Each structure stands twice: as structure tokens, then as C-alpha cells.
Amino acid sequence: MPKDLKTKTVEAAPAKPGGKGRKAAGPKAKTAAKPTAKKPVRTKPPAKPACRTGYVALVGRPNTGKSTLLNALIGQKVAIVSDKPQTTRISILGIKTTERGQIVFVDNPGIHRPLHTLNKRMMNFVYSALETSDAVCLLIDATQKFGHGDEFVLETLGRVKTPVFLLINKVDIVRKDKVLPIIDHYKDLFPFREIIPISALKGVNLDILERLILDLLPEAPKLYSDDEISDQSERFLFAEIVREKVLRYVTEELPFATAVYIESIERKEQPDWKKAGETRPVTYIRASIFVERDNHRKIVIGRHGSLVKQIGIEARQEIAEYIGHKVFLDLQVRVRERWRDSEAVLDLIEGQKA
Asked: Is the domain 234-353 a CATH 3.40.50.720 member?
């Protein structure tokens, strides 16, 4: 028997008078006490990282690649893209959901000094995004020299209290020794949270940007379901697709002086000639392209209607691909004089987003 284990003897209690009592027992044999078994230690599963959610405003001068960046971050097209300035007129949300959380990117009109009521409304979208976002990404074009427009952008950002990232876009087409002076110049002009060289077109450093943004977003539940990628209505999306095709073919003043309004969308079932007794969906869309002058109307229509026909073909094909069935698109070009200063027309156009 191990010497270090204690033993104990137990004596029986005396029987009670008149009772059966218990038999007296002699000393019991000494037995060793069993060592107490250790309880298994239960380890807690690793805590799930807290969900981080917030809004991030994409801002910059016109035509710096904000919409291209939004599409690259989301992984598919949610905003139209054009080489014409001021393509984006209304803020558009792009929703990026990951295991760590949800980033709601807000693609905004380019920052500029407004001339028309339309431009003032565009800048109001920018101001609203700057005030309500949890972070801001300022996008600049590495191929463009610093100018008065950039000074106005930095002046506009002076009111921002949230972290601002500087994204130097198009580094895929400039030499590295051209990027370093840009970094040195900007870091002395504004207290940026981070300065990141990127390529929206090639996806360079976008993973780094996403990680840094999620690091600073607040812990909060997701705002949208995992399968949502944008807040656009179907009507607004169709109008933007048509406008994108218009911008592809018009030049000079016309890109700024055209707008698209979807008059109606109607879905019908028609007999499927490939499958007897079955039907297939067809969508009929009527849309108006607004211009400010009659000579603008003639340009958009083109010789014998050739240009508006081409615009219609390309827009119809993209819309059909998006909704997954046949589309009929009726395009009309209408003159609305000074529509850029008409509150009624602007309300009509912006109302498509709801």
C-alpha cells in the first residue's frame, strides 16, 4: 500500500434498546482512499469575429474612375461607366458582404463647382454622403496633374470628420517613380488615414483597401441581406443603361445635356413558338431621351435614325441579359428646353431611383 495514502476505521453505532439495531462490528480492514479523478477541462470555441458594418463614400473629381472602382469592389456591374465627365448624377450604393462584415460603398457624382440646378443637386448628394459615411475614399487619377479642381476637392473635404483614404488610381499605367511624388505632395495637404496606390481596372491593392476599411468600421449588424448588391430600382437601372449607350456616341456638350426617363415597363406572356402550348415572358419598355435643343435631337437620332437605333440595340441587349428574357425597347428623343434647370424634370428623373 502506498505510504502517502491515509486510511480510516469506522465503528458501528450501539444498538438502541428494544430495537433491532445494527450488529456491532469490529474494526474494518484498512483500505486506501481512491485518488480524486480530475474533471476534464472544457475549452470554449473561438469567439466569432464581430460583424463590422458601415457606409464608405467614394468621392473625387469627375472622371477619376469612381464607378469603375465600385464595380470592381462589388465584383459585378452596378454603376454605368463612361469616359465622359459627370457620368454619375445620383449617388448609387454598392453592397459588399464578406465574412467580416458589410461595406456599403456610395458612388457619388464628381466634385465640381455647380452651374445648373442639376449640378447643385449632384453636389448635394456628395455633401450628404460625406456627412453620413463612416469613412471616405478620395480617388485621384495618377495620370493627371494637380490643379484647381483638386484644390476644390480638398477644400470640400475640409468639413469631413471621418477617416479619409487617398486612393491613387491608374497606377497600372504609370511608372512607380511617378507615383512617389504624388504621395509626397498629397500627404502634406491633408491628414489622410492611409494613402494607397490602386488600379480600379486591374484590381491592384483592392484587397488591402477592403481590409483597412473593415478594420475601422463600427461593430454593427448588417444593413442588407447577403445577396443584395445595390439599392437601384429596375426603372432607374434601365434608364442608366440607355444613358450609358447615349454617352458612348455623343460628344462635346451633349453628354451633359441628355437624360433618360423610362415612361413605362410592361411584362407580358406570349406563346413560345419553340415549345407548343407554353409561354415565355417578354418585357416592353418605353423610354424618352431628353435633350435641350432641336439640333441636339437631330444628332442623337442620327442620319435616317441610325444612331438612336444603335443605342436602342445595345441597350436592349444589355437589359435582356440582365433580366434573362426578351425585351422590346421603344426609344423616343424629345426636346425639353433647359431641363437641367427644371425642378419638375429633375424630380421626374431622380424619382426613378425610388
From this structure: no
